[in-house]
Amino acid sequence: MSTPETQGENQRLPTRLRIRMRFQRISWSDLAATLGPVLLISLIALWVAFHYVRPAPPDTIIITSGPKGSSFDTTAERYKKILAHNGVKLEIVPSEGALDNLKRLSDPALHVDVGFVQGGLADTVENADGLVSLGSVFYLPIAVFYRGAQPLTRLSQLKGKRIAIGREGSGTHTLALTLLKANGIEPKGPTRLLNLSGETAVEALLKNKIDAAVMMGDSATPTNMRNLLHARGVQLFDFVQADGYLRRFRYLSRIDFPPGSMDLGKNIPSKPTALIAPTVELVARDALHPALSDLLIDAAREVHGKASVIQRAGEFPAPLEHEYRISDDAARYYKSGKGFLYRHLPFWLASLLDRTLVILVPVIVLLIPAFRLVPSLYGWRIRTRVFRRYAELMELERASLAPMTPEQRAELLKRIDDFENAVITTRMPGSHADQLYILRQHIKIARDKLTGSDKQV
Question: What is the reported pTM?
Fold first, then answer.
């Protein structure tokens, strides 16, 4: 027990010596045994979280684009340059078009991450459940050109005609068949549906070899559109039923062209003209890393965010949910933008810090109560050591109750002395030393009973 005098002496001791004395009172083996499991479990939790909870984003994204030189291909090339600034490589895999892209994305055996997919194709594949949309990126207007002196108001009026519907397997071909079928025109009926696209279809229409052409995307290039708009006897179909199409096909949008919007000098079109258009979506597999999702939407915003003849500035990219659900990461991006770290730090550093925070915060929350338990567990271990000594003492006392010879009594007294010496030399923190002194008093009681001293008054 310390007195004011001893406390004053301790305060006069050198700081280094006082610290050494304080540490000598700690049972390091018990502290290690108590703290070790907590630290081991924490390290295991960190390792598991770091590798499985939120893995590092890969440095390569594979995109399935379109035919070489197509609008999908050139768009992917622009994405590639933007992503390269953030140290991410975009590997472009050419394809036959939107339908081919969708088939690749829905095939788990093929290693692609993202691709351009136009609306109206979801029903052509079976495994689209694992696909999500990062948003619509641009319109793909459907332009139907036809020969005739009188304007047509319904696609059903093309029944029995020769119609170019794009090459087989293309998005244009698939959507043209859908729209014509909705108007009662079937492939095996009286109408001739020809797999012509692009300049081939334009030339056939100009030379009167076909009566109409459904054009979209790369077939409806500015040059092809200009040639047909200025051709004698060729008219652009006005979708006067546009709102009806939108009600029936939810992936379509309406685009209105005012007079002169395509050629002010010749006032083309000469009257307000409505077209319908699916949007092209950036479709990805749902396993795409959130950080890469943000980068792709960033690139889309830079590429597609400007105004054009058919869209307003800032209209794209947009979270327009049609046939594929908007991914949770994309929805978060459109709502609040990129996270603080990604806005202010290089991508690789922001990714590292983001993962670290995601992992450390819950681990720290778990560690705080765990470390609060350490002192209690440490004290329990120390008390357990004392309790084990009491078990040994009880065994010695039971032995003293049996009849014994003087030699046996002397041997038992020696065992009690050895036991007391072992207790005295036991390393014990100062905060629990009182328990050892109480144990020594009980040892004395056991010795006195054995020697008969407890009967002497």
Answer: 0.67
Calpha distance 142→155 (Å, rounded): 12
Length, in residues, of the chain: 457
What pLDDT, on the 0 to 100 scale, is given for residue 276? 96
Q: What is the CA radius of gyration of the chain?
A: 42
Judge contact between 112 and 282, C-beta under 8 A: no
- 261 pLDDT above the threshold of 60: yes
- Cβ(89)–Cβ(394) below 8 Å: no
Interacting residues of 361 by C-beta distance below 8 A, sequence separation 6+: none
DSSP of 40-74, one letter per residue?
Answer: HHHHHHHHHIIIIISPPPPSEEEEE--STTSHHHH
Q: Nearest CA to 378 among 24, 36, 20?
A: 36
State phi, psi for 171 to the nearest 5 degrees. Answer: -65, -35
Of 259, 263, 287, 264, the residue nearest 274 (C-alpha):
259
- Residue by residue, DSSP assigns 272-330 as -EEEEEEEEEEEEETT--HHHHHHHHHHHHHHH-S-BTTB-TT--SB---SSSPBPHHH
pLDDT at 24: 46
